[in-house]
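Hey L., structure's done. Input below.
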Amino acid sequence: MYQYLVKNKISDPQDQKPGTIKTSTFDPVSYIAFHGGASLISVDLLRTWQCPGHTGGKSFCDSPYTKLNKEALE
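Output:
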């Protein structure tokens, strides 16, 4: 799994969002290519992790960082 900060390079001047956090199974090069290319978006890799076991047909597994944050808050 990969987690990115995705920024739109072609944006509305009134759009003040710094970017959107997206999670994907695509590596950075594939993610950019699938979403229109480097002229449309830029991505910054935030985190990466592996899902345990057979993952065919499953949705995304949670980030281990999410579990650590939940335990820290309890």
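The longest strand covers residues 41-48. Helices lie at 28-34, 64-73.

-- N.
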